[in-house]
Amino acid sequence: MNFGGVDTWAIVLAAGAGYIVGAAWYMALSKPWMAAHGFTHETLKADKSPLPFILAFVGNLVIATALAGVVGHLGVGQVTLKNAVISAAALWLGFVATTLAVNYSFGRRPLRLFLIDAGHWLAVFVVQGIVIGAMGV
User: Fold this and answer.
1) CA angle, corner 52, sides to 46 and 54, nearest 5?
2) Cα 96 from chain centroid?
3) Tell me: the pLDDT tens digits for 74-87?
4) Where are the domains of the chain?
5) What per-residue confidence (pLDDT) applies to 45?
6) CA angle 39, 42, 43 (to 5 degrees)
7) Backbone angles phi, psi at 19, to 5 degrees
8) What burial letters (b/e) apply to 97-130, b meaning 16+ CB within 10 Å?
9) What are the start-end ranges of the E strands in the chain?
10) CA distance 128 to 124
11) Of 5, 38, 56, 122, which sits most exposed with the smallest number of CB within 10 A?
12) Which residues, 6+ apart, have CB-to-CB distance to 117 below 8 Å?
């Protein structure tokens, strides 16, 4: 399904893939992530709000939409797997990693937490780039 030159299914699938990557990432790194925040299993289980999960998926939709727009602006014939992954990594480095680095530095957050969170977003951006590059925009 195309709307305004953007493949809606590519965006939805990229968002879903990003969400799944995030879930797997934080399941694998839950213990060091919780320790860096000072959380325990009990404190996290006490909050049953679905809001963080909803926001995570909406955030993935926004990222996938923006990435599709950026890749689509490369021009006709330039929407390739390679270009989408390079664009995703460049956007991550230019906006996400730098923003997190500044915020975590002023917040005196541990380097371990920065590496976990920044690594998560790099994985999300690259996976979304793979999906968008493979399917087109």
Assistant:
1) 130
2) 9
3) 888 888 999 999 99
4) 2-41+51-135
5) 85
6) 50
7) -65, -45
8) beebeeebeeeeeeeebbebbbebbbbbbbbbbb
9) 2-3, 6-7
10) 6
11) 38
12) 100, 104
- Residue 136: the pLDDT is 78
Give every residue of the chain whose pLDDT is below 70, as ranges.
1-6, 137
Can you tell me the distance from the alpha carbon of 3 to that of 48, in angstroms, rounded to the nearest whole number?
37
Query: What pLDDT is recorded for position 48?
Result: 87
User: What was the pLDDT predicted at 71?
Assistant: 93
Determine the pLDDT at residue 123: 98
Q: How far apart are CA 18 and CA 128, in angstroms?
A: 6
Which pair of structure tokens corresponds to residue 14?
A: 């990229």
User: Which residues, 6+ apart, have CB-to-CB distance to 63 below 8 Å?
Assistant: 15, 18, 124, 125, 128
Dig out the tokens for 84 from the structure: 């989408």
